[in-house]
Design a protein that fits this description.
With 318 residues, this protein is mostly helical. It is built from 14 helices and no strands.
């Protein structure tokens, strides 16, 4: 097990280096002068002196290998540069906003598991019954509704019509924990609607596949209790495809909560990325994309280690 873990950690570190290198190469392969593009406003050509000053500020006048070394050195030290808009440290702004996005995704993931797993197991055990059909149709409907529609309807119903919760905003938990949770409920629930439907369908399909295998029929023949068969035999074997699909969905959410953060005015990382792109703030965009990419690699590492814990055969097969 220790060797497997070390191999996966080593592979993850290599992937992080490759991602950082790829971002650097793509940015330098894009046609045009980044400094000139950043200073261009309304199609008016910028002052050449300002362009040279910005090139020097960004280190674009240095040899390519020197730029690459400075870039990697800064990443290793946690220095992602300074914003071109107000000069603040990009890393500080990212570390401020990242926990908010992770909290939003974490709350949505927890809600989706609490809804999707039990209903998926129930539908698999009651396959082809009225309950199974109702749950399956409901999941299909939730999957087909865009997240911004769910968010807008939530604001319309719960904020404007029923006036149960505010329409959006953010309150630090250190100041008002209950108010923070109230403001978190709607955006997290908006994301959880579609994610719970994915968990439901994946759980149902995986459970049905395992329920039809010979060892399950043998367990029934031996008189093993139904609850033990479902929990210890069927669900444990069905967890790998569930974990795989769920992890992919979470990885997508790392940079895909833009619409939810916009609708509910949640000050997270995705909204920060959109504003940075609109402002053409080169260091901010690079820093945010790099952090999201590293988080995705770490998520894949966690899934690989979870595979080995769920199925010991995995650690020997790779």
């Amino acid at each position: 097990m220790a060797i497997y873990v070390l191999k996966r950690i080593g592979l993850a570190m290599m992937l992080v280096w490759l991602v950082a290198t790829l971002i650097f190469m793509i940015l330098h392969a894009v046609p045009g002068d980044p400094a000139e593009l950043l200073l261009s406003q309304g199609g008016v050509a910028p002052d050449p002196a300002q362009v040279e000053e910005l090139r020097e500020q960004l280190g674009l006048n240095l040899p390519l290998l020197t730029q690459y070394w400075n870039y990697l050195s800064g990443v290793l030290q946690g220095d992602l540069g300074s914003s071109l808009q107000d000069g603040h440290a990009v890393a500080e702004e990212i570390w401020l906003r990242l926990p908010r996005t992770l909290e939003l995704i974490g709350a949505a993931a927890l809600l989706s598991l609490l809804i999707g797993l039990p209903t998926g197991i129930l539908a698999a055990r009651r396959v082809n019954t009225l309950l199974d059909r109702v749950l399956s149709v409901t999941a299909s409907v939730f999957l087909s509704i865009p997240v911004f529609v769910v968010g807008t309807l939530s604001v319309l119903i719960f904020s404007q019509q029923l006036r149960i919760v505010p329409a959006g905003g953010y309150t630090p938990p250190s100041k008002d924990l209950m108010g923070h949770l109230v403001l978190l409920a709607m955006p997290a629930g908006t994301i959880a609607v579609g994610l719970a439907a994915v968990v439901f369908r994946t759980t149902r399909n995986a459970m049905l596949e395992i329920l039809g295998r010979d060892f399950v029929r043998a367990a029934h023949a031996k008189g093993v209790k139904e609850k033990r068969i479902v929990v210890h035999h069927v669900l444990r074997n069905a967890l790998i495809p569930i974990v795989t699909v769920f992890a992919l969905q979470i990885g997508t959410l790392l940079g895909g909560t833009v619409l939810v953060e916009y609708v509910f005015n949640w000050p997270g990382l995705s909204g920060y990325l959109v504003r940075s792109v609109e402002a053409r703030d080169y260091p901010e965009v690079v820093g945010i994309v790099l952090v999201i990419s590293i988080l995705f690699v770490l998520l894949n590492l966690a899934v690989d280690l979870l595979y080995a814990a769920l199925d010991p055969r995995v650690r020997y097969a790779r």
